[in-house]
Amino acid sequence: MMSDQKFQEPFDPAREELIDTSAVFSGEESTGEKPTDEESGVDSAGRQTSIRVHVSLLDSLMTLAGELVLSRNQLLQTISSGGLKSAEAVGQRIDLITSELQEAIMLTRMQPIGNVFGKFPRIVRDLAAQLGKQIDLSIFGKEVELDKTIIEAIGDPLTHLVRNAVDHGIEPPELRRQREKPEVGSVVLRAFHEAGQVVIEIEDDGAGLDSEQLASLALRQGLVTAEQVQSMSDKEKMNLIFLPGFSSADTVTDVSGRGVGMDVVKSNFDKLGGQIDITSETGKGTAISIKLPLTLAIIPCQVILTEGERYAIPQVNLEELLRIPAHLVKERIEIVGSAEVVRLRGKLLPLVRLADALGVERTYTDPDDGSVKIDRRRRIADRRSKQSPLTTAPAAPEQDADQHAPPVRRESPDRRIATDSALNIVVVSAGPITYGLIVDRLEDSEEIVIKPLGRHLQQCQGYAGATIMGDGRIALILDVANLATMAHLSSVDGSDRATEVQQETESQIATAEDSRSVLIFRNSETEQFGIPLDQVERIEKIKRNDIEYLGAKRVMQYRDGSLHLICVDDIAQVQPLAERDDLLVIVFSFGTHSIGLLACGPIDTRDIAARADEETLRQPGIAGSTIIGGQTTLLVDINEMVGQLYPEWF
């Protein structure tokens, strides 16, 4: 009787019941006996092979799986009946369910980072007692969650960094007293979310690092040359600590390094798609910041094309996309020492051709007959581009002749007059260095599923994995850090020319009355428009058939909702939107509302003076005009346009 009453007890879905999936999926029952390692979900290395999941999350997965089955049946029925419009609606529903299912499955793998942080208080306490130091450890962000695979992989490198902070960072109490510091040293360990990633910071108030001393040690150990050190910035000198073989310790101890360098720590985070950055001030302390993706299974990437092959660049390494028209190559691309660089907002970024880094033969399309020919151009820069030495110190004659010899002049006309000669540059960051990767074409950004490389390809340094695209073809995922190493890339931040460019930029900002950045685009093929860049929230690429017409309104599906679309010619007396299949949508936010402005490419950003002609071409929706790139550019007043079209929003 008691048994019947127990089974009739109503189920409360709000209760926070946890299920050990290793037992559920194996069909085992609890016997009260102590489980073996295999039964308890622990492998031979001591790692957990099972996870605990909330019942509510499993219920959500079952619901989504049922919705997916229903949508599949609808799709099969629609295909058999030949209804194209119905198939599109069902396809959109499947896309939405798949996204929700992906998010729910990812949640099953998430674990709190406190599982790793929990062991550090004892480690710090034992080390402090062993070294005769007094250390206060503060931990924040234990509740931050990461993928189970990442949680398991970051334990050892984080332990190494914490032990380093205790051993090398915090000074002994008597030395801290001499430096007028508290006798008790401080080590802070924190984790938090930032821009879709998890950031882990390890900070101490110890002796800090001296960038000049690190550069001297690296030079003495033969890891860098004197010329490389001379052209390095302070930040790059600080990151020399991550070089393979670098050591700042006179003897190997069993406390912190144990003969293992920081390069091993960096390589471990690199394998996880993470980035490590170090900042330090002599006598004040050191802070190490680690950025990690939430999961390793699915990541957002920028797809690019080079020599007919598609590659993917993880967005965690992506800084921005840059296109330099053919006629601006001679102005934007320079040669500093033996390095070719692009001038970008007061900085000089070294350039690498992706085809050259991967050992692929470069080709180009002849503008006259459309045939594909071998590209024999040795330099990225134009023969009229500015050339500068690394430093003002005179170089050896043989070095000067080799590094700064002018490029060979061809008798044939310059190919750069063709539109296809424009440079598509992906600006990527690889630890301490940021550089430009030259590719043939920029395609869409996509979320991709990472597949590991086969054993016969794992020795290829330039690749971090592979993925299968929507058309079934394989695209390799690029490892931008290893590409920089393969290209023997070095920074020019410490060169005289970099200092000169920085001073010029600062001077222009100081002398400009009120400069501002504008986004340049087109509405028709001939008219150019600009809009303040700080008003732009996002730029989307769409097809013309993505636009839906509801009465007199244009809308498109956007982030599980609808986005209103407008054109400049809806208000202003300008030429209508160009008849193109590929369009751009510039997204703006107005409180709780978003709106998209239809536009055509190419787009660019420029810094212009705030002074503009507010009378000659002033009209509704157009605040005025200015000259940009030798062409009259109409400045769009998006607030006035939206105010006239949707007055109820204000």
UniProtKB/TrEMBL annotation:
Start and end residues of each CheW-like domain: 298-489, 515-647
Listed GO MF terms: phosphorelay sensor kinase activity
Classification lineage: Bacteria, Pseudomonadati, Thermodesulfobacteriota, Desulfobulbia, Desulfobulbales
Pfam families in the record: CheW (PF01584), H-kinase_dim (PF02895), HATPase_c (PF02518)
Keywords: Kinase, Phosphoprotein, Transferase
Alphabetical list of InterPro entries matching this protein: Bact_Chemotaxis_CheA, CheA-like_dim, CheA-like_homodim_sf, CheW-like_dom_sf, CheW-lke_dom, HATPase_C_sf, HATPase_dom, His_kinase_dom
Enzyme Commission number, as recorded: 2.7.13.3
Transferase is among the record's keywords: yes
Name of this protein: histidine kinase
Reactions accelerated catalytically: ATP + protein L-histidine = ADP + protein N-phospho-L-histidine
Domain of life according to the entry: Bacteria
GO biological process: chemotaxis
Protein's organism: Desulfofustis glycolicus DSM 9705
Keyword match Methyltransferase: no
Ranges of residues in domain Histidine kinase: 92-296
Biased composition (Basic and acidic residues): 1-18
Annotated segments matching region Disordered: 1-45, 366-415
A GO cellular component annotation in the UniProt record: cytoplasm
